[in-house]
Write a structure and sequence with these properties.
With about 325 residues, the protein is of the alpha/beta class. It folds into two domains: about 200 residues, Rossmann fold, CATH 3.40.50.10130; about 80 residues, Crossover junction endonuclease EME1, DNA-binding domain (DNA polymerase, domain 1). The chain contains eleven helices and ten strands. The strands form three sheets. A six-stranded mixed sheet has the order 2-1-3-6-7-8, with helices on both faces. Strands 4-5 form a two-stranded antiparallel ribbon. A two-stranded antiparallel ribbon has the order 9-10. A hairpin with a 5-residue loop joins β4 and β5. α3 crosses α5 and α8 crosses α9. The longest helix has about 30 residues. The radius of gyration is 28 Å and the shape is flat. This is Crossover junction endonuclease EME1.
């Protein structure tokens, strides 16, 4: 093989690797990633009124599903199907990645029986043995309605104790669900969260590596270029504080037009906590009326603590 041919092969390989990387990044983004997530549902899981809701919610989020008998009744498992890629040799590769999350559905009647007989932990132990290394979510469907129609079936304290035990000793989370829609929403939202997990982990690692803690990928973020956008960012930051309305934020900005000026005001004021207390508030951007409304000492103290306290656990 000549040097020219070798160089050409290297270029082809690099282009294919770049195309593969770009495709991976695109498929990882929210929305796109859903179509690669598969839920494997035991047929018994779909028995009952909640079955159609589960399938409907999965379809709404473009999550794929398979109905297949599991090792344990009423269990849902998940796996990610990686996109097909073309190798340099022209071969098509595709693989699946099982995820360490499972869901088990238990009826309210079954839970009551297990609590009475003290067998709830043994059921959870069996699940964790069949699916080692997985994170188990226990869905209890219809407990409230069952207890209403069967008075004195089991005490509330005994039920809470049994559920707390599986939380502490088996690392198992549980959800008490009363409607079919809640069951469907839980399975679909879990699938969506698992689909987006690689993207969110990548973003987290990126921000940690760059020590960057502000992102502009969500709706409502303020774009800042140079000094443009700083005023809007300052206003949005104030409005995020509980009980600070747009009128309150505008009143503060009218006296302290920038965050640095506000910080200097707090730093050099004789009575920092009450610095903003007497600032008048214009209602809906109109003139100050005879009945003057002010920010007040409580709100002023809260804002002061937010911007001046060095305690990470400071309560506002």
């Amino acid at each position: 093989m000549s040097a020219k041919q070798g160089k050409s092969c290297e270029n082809v390989t690099e282009r294919m690797q770049q195309l593969h990387f770009n495709e991976q990044q695109r498929n990882m983004k929210p929305g796109m990633c859903n179509k690669f997530m598969h839920a494997v549902i035991d047929p018994d899981f779909l028995q009952g009124e909640h079955g159609s809701e589960v399938l409907s919610k999965l379809n709404e989020l473009s999550l794929k599903y398979e109905i297949k008998r599991q090792q344990f009744p009423r269990v849902v498992t998940f796996y990610r199907a990686n996109a097909q890629t073309l190798t340099v040799q022209g071969a098509v590769t595709a693989k699946t990645s099982p995820l360490k999350f499972i869901v088990h559905l238990m009826t309210g009647q079954e839970l009551v029986l297990h609590v009475k007989e003290g067998t709830l932990r043994s059921i959870v132990d069996r699940l964790t043995t069949l699916y080692p290394g997985t994170v188990l979510s226990l869905l209890v469907f219809g407990l409230v309605s069952y207890c209403r129609s069967n008075r004195n079936c089991v005490g509330r304290k005994e039920t809470e104790t049994a559920l707390t035990e599986v939380q502490l000793f088996n690392k198992c989370s549980y959800q008490l669900l009363d409607t079919a829609e809640e069951v469907g929403n839980f399975v679909a939202q879990l699938g969506k969260s698992l689909a987006e997990l690689p993207y969110k982990q990548q973003q987290y690692d990126k921000y940690c590596q760059e020590q960057l803690y502000l992102g502009n990928e969500k709706k409502g973020c303020v774009r800042v270029e140079g000094s443009a956008g700083l005023h809007q960012l300052y206003q949005n930051q104030l409005v995020k504080i509980p009980s600070v309305s747009l009128e309150v934020a505008e009143a503060i900005i009218s006296v302290y037009p920038s965050l640095s000026q506000l910080m200097d005001g707090f730093r050099f004021a004789v009575d920092g906590p009450n610095l903003l207390a007497d600032i008048p508030i214009r209602r809906a951007g109109g003139p100050v009326t005879t009945s003057i409304r002010r920010i007040g000492p409580e709100m002023s103290k809260k804002i002061y603590l937010l911007y001046s306290s060095l305690e990470s656990s400071q309560e506002l």
